[in-house]
Amino acid sequence: MGENNQVVKNKFNLKRITHSKGFSSLTSALIAILLGLLFGLIVMIFAKPDSAWAGFKFIVLGGFKRIGDVFYFATPILMTGLSVGFAYKIGLFNIGASGQYTMGMFFALYVGFMFDLPGNSHWIVAVLAGMLGGMLWGFIPGFFKAFLNVNEVITSIMFNYIGMYLVDMWVQGSSVMYVATKTRTNYLPTDVQIPSLGIKGSNVNYGIVLAIAIGIILYIVLEKTTFGYELKATGYNKFASEYAGMKGKRNTIITMLIAGGLAGLGGAFAILAPSGIAGSSMTYEPINIIAPAGFNGIAVALLGNSHPIGTIFSSIFISHIQRGGTLASLVGFKPEIIDVVISVIIYFSAFAAIVSTAFGGIIKKFVGKKKIDDNSKHNINEDSLVEKSDNNIKGAE
Amino acid sequence: MENYIIEMLNITKKFPGIIANDNITLKLKKGEIHALLGENGAGKSTLMSVLFGLYQAEEGEIRKNGQVVKINNPNDANELGIGMVHQHFKLVEIFTVLENIILGVEPNTAGFLKKKEAREKVINLSEKYGLRVDPDELIEDITVGMQQRVEILKMLYRDNEILIFDEPTAVLTPQEIKEILQIMRDFAEEGKSILFITHKLNEIMEVADRCTVLRKGKCMGTVNINETSKEELSRMMVGRNITFSVHKDEVKTGDVTLSVKNLTVASKTHKNNAVKNVSFDVRGGEILCIAGIDGNGQTEFVNALTGLDKVSSGAIKLCGEDITKSSIRRRSILGMSHIPEDRHKYGLVLDYKLGQNLVLQRYWQKDFQKSGFIKFDAVREYAEKLIDEFDIRSSQGPDTIARSMSGGNQQKAIVAREIDKEPELLVAVQPTRGLDVGAIEYVHKQLVARRDAGKAVLLVSLELDEVMDVSDRILVMYEGEIVGELDPKIATVEELGLYMSGAKRDVVKEINDGGK
Known about the structure:
Low-confidence stretches of chain A: 1-19, 368-397
Shape of chain A: globular
Oligomer: heterodimer
Helix content of chain A: over 70%
CATH topology of the largest domain in chain B: Rossmann fold
Number of strands of chain A: 2
Mean pLDDT of chain B: 86
Mean pLDDT of chain A: 81
């Protein structure tokens, strides 16, 4: 199992790695995952003792047999995860990723059906339109927050509903887009579908490549540019950033624009994915349900510690577990039980921060103790000190 | 053998890259006021945190009444009767005074609060010691001085007999300082033992019985106050002689740098204007000080001047340009620097590294970025330069998270950043708050150096000594108005005090108009 290997590797270099800051978030995420898996196993044993182990093996390992699908399903939640995580870094909680995702999907659909563009430009324009739709739906809560000081959580929750109902209404009102007899959208033309990566039996496409690239770009923007410096400063302390002459209101709006655009791209990537069956495509069913991708994005971002690179891995992990979960039905597990187990795993994963202080501390203490035993009593217990300073306790005065 | 209530013997406490306490011994007698003196970063707070159970010492032991005790957390300390008033208060803002006092030791029957009993005890205590508070007011609505009284009442409510005051006077007005010192004396007379952390020598000379001096984590010894002098204490603390008066050469004042005309600023808390029709000029080569008791409109005035808040009416000109409505960035580019009053709220991004904080207003300049990408090497180099020049002490240099630095060093970082911008106008609000004498001397020298370079300095201060020593001209602000202009060479502290308390006022308007 991938996670196990990483743990072993970490133990190996523990002394050096415990000093790094990234270590605590990585260990906590890994431990959270392990705990989640363990708890999931327990749930499965209660549900169906006979085939619990077989089902569990499917959940953990099944994804490896369907790598293509893992990446395919990771794409939209990676984008919503990046959206939530990015906003969070700037101190905003973007719970409206679902609405932005749905809006993005609609804009992409609209370009797909209503525009006739040559060759590759069609899907590219559709993807960009999706981004635009998401940005629009992110802009409004951002504007309200910046100029009217309305909490972005409230507005973006409301915009989840407004977006979803609007899209459902628009889709159902268009005879080009909607097939009333099948209560779903029509098949999109082939040229608007994102080119497949060509893995057999899977819909995986260039969407995931773009999504990962976007994640890396986000990382660079946040960590290496003046723009990112400014945004993070605004997130950490809006008073100090204002004092330093940064434009807090503008930054809030830009942040929500970008977050919305990311989620909108997620929607576009999802709906424009190629279908394995010739002549068909992905479809959208206007059945008045808020897209779960937005909420999965919150879990993905939490597990990835809101870090763009961490989010890439956490989205792939969650997708991996979900793919494995569908396979567990082969040994007789009902889909609902699988959903419960997956939820438990994600739920535990979201506890990463708490787990970090509890277990991370224990591990560091253990290493620290060993060091004391090794060396004479007069040496400084560096590891536990690192832990102290990690906890932001005021330093030496 | 003497009767020691607390003995801290050979305490050693290390942090990565720094030995905060190196073999320190401190003995507290029953019923005495024992001062703990040292520069910023000398290890005073660390030592007290060890006593209060926030840190564990690697070596050494703590004894109470001769018995060795182990203090693992603040609860242990509390059980031993040790209470502490922290420099930054630890109060729940949205709770009332009473709720804060009983927090953690709530009297109850079967889970139901017995507030009435608690209220009586609090009222009794507050009357007995003259600690005036209203038990039902919310913490967020009361002044800093009152919040401190709440912290003291918290200790008394818990029947603590060993009271630690961590720089209690740093945030208080002169009147409040007098009160708190008297309260400490009353406590000592009653047999309570007091540890008083400070770097204000005057206060030590006034109330303390003995004083232990720390320097760079080492104990420089304990002295009896009646056998020592301010000069000796400061020499022990910094290892060299400190000049208490600020040396200033005559400088010819230049052109008007800042011109404020009929400035009025609305108040956020009440209907009246916080700043009323204020007019004055600051010229290059002078230090103009705005003196006044806290809460008389200085904060609002500075916020309006620096662009943090809007102006109701009036005009501000900086170097000839009308900046009344300019952005903060524009003011900064024109040459305004601002050392803010609240260093945690405005001065620093606490979760950023020290290096990142030192370029907080300059990250966008050519020196530090290239086509939008931060030049990390340049930032680091610049940070190291400032750290070196301004003696900013931290455990990991430019990579230290600002939050983990001591208050004094945080302040030094801000001062370094603002002065190194080489501003035309330096607005310094309480620039030496929380600094030790060595650092104060340094900051004062820097302010004077700006003046000597022909630049303007606007100093806003509550410290009378600072006002009298550093400034070339004093304006006194009372209830949002300028009520007097004084020449520090002629005026006395008493006279200044009369203006500050509103007992005396001139018609200053003519003076200002004359200057224009």
